Amino acid sequence: MESARDKRYMNRKKYCRFCKNKEEIDYKNVDLLARYITERRKIVPRRVTGVCAKHQRILSTSIKRARILALIPFTVLHK
Amino acid sequence: MQSYETVFITSIDIKEDDLNKVLGKIKEAVSKNEGEISKLEKWQQRELAYPINDLTKGVYYIAEYKANSGVVSDIESSFKFLREEILRFLTVKVKLAKVKPVKPEPVKPEPVKPEPVKPEPVKPEPVKPEPVKPEPAKTEPENTDNSAFKTPDAKPTEKGGES
Question: Which of A23, B12, B22, B115 is exposed most, by the fewest CB atoms within 10 A?
């Protein structure tokens, strides 16, 4: 019983993809940014994605830039 | 001097004259600020994520240039008078020189230096009495050599075992 419970809570350790793969974050790369927004088009917190603080900062500014250029919607409620 | 990147959106059915007017404004502003344009081209036509001025599609253009910091205000102020042609624009600073390759080089020498640490030349002095031991040790290698000569007999047996 206990071992089964342990397994349920065993999680693979999260890591920052951008640190590991040395991918560059660009506000024009819509496919990349789309991975880090929710269904409601909110920015996903790094506690969920495992992105490091430095790259989360870059990521959030580039998502905001992409929103201004209408590459990514601000909300679902746009007409 | 600083390098910048401007992205702007126009409507799909923009007239060539209007587009040339917009591109002309950029060239004018850059040349005014003693810079040069490295890239000025159409990026893509795509559906806007949300309607702007009741338009659902737009054409994206990218301009990359290097000039004095005055360009940005010049370009953006001229864009503000082109509301009909330009739906949105965004100017961003771009980093050109990446010093990444330089950093690893000083890092590698550091681990290399500890290996030839000079304590080794210091040790040889007390070691000198010790070299007496290696001499008897040399006699041992001779024995091992003899054994090595003997071993050839053993080796074929091994090979035979393998085959």
Answer: B115
Q: Is the pLDDT of residue A75 over 80?
A: yes
Residue A7 lies in a domain: yes
Fold for domain B2-93?
A: Alpha-Beta Plaits (3.30.70)
State whether A27 and B58 contact (CB < 8 Å).
no
Q: Which residues of B touch A65 (CB under 8 A)?
A: 90, 92
Looking up residue A25, the CATH number of its domain turns out to be 4.10.640.10
Per-domain boundaries in chain B: 2-93, 119-154
Q: CA separation (Å) from A30 to A36, A56, B5, B22, B94? A: 10, 16, 17, 25, 18
The ipTM is: 0.78
- Checking if the pLDDT of A14 tops 90, the result is no
Range of the domain at A60: 2-68
Residues of B in contact with A74 (CB under 8 A): 50
Domain count, chain A: 1
By the 8 A CB rule, do B69 and B2 touch?
A: yes
The model's pLDDT over B65-83, given as tens digits with 9 standing for 90+, comes to 999 888 899 888 988 888 8
* Tokens 């580039």 found at: A62
Contact B57, B23 (CB under 8 A): no
H or E segment and range at residue B51: strand B36-52
